[in-house]
Design the sequence.
């Protein structure tokens, strides 16, 4: 028995819907590339210096800057002005950023 073209049309529509959803999700995460810019690296460094390489949650002073995060106090969720606002950034150690802060943000979402 030959497949009918009528059965192909709904499958194509589903594929189009899936493609649109993938594109929508990619567009929502366009801000991730901002973390790779020289502008972000400069801003990150200024926040770490301003906070004297000290975690603003637990008070740990960390000399290895690769273990420190310039964290957004208020999640930016792709809002460019909030992403680049130095007043919205704080220095956190890796464990504080990956632990308590992430749990708080998940609870607020």
Sequence:
């Amino acid at each position: 028995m030959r497949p009918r073209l009528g059965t192909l049309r709904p499958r194509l529509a589903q594929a189009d819907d899936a493609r649109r959803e993938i594109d929508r999700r990619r567009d929502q995460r366009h801000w991730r590339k901002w973390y790779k810019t020289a502008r972000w690296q400069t801003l990150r460094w200024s926040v770490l210096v301003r906070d004297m390489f000290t975690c603003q949650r637990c008070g740990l002073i960390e000399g290895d800057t690769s273990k420190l995060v310039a964290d957004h106090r208020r999640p930016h969720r792709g809002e460019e002005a909030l992403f680049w606002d130095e007043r919205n950034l704080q220095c956190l150690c890796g464990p504080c950023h990956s632990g308590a802060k992430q749990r708080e943000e998940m609870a607020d979402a």
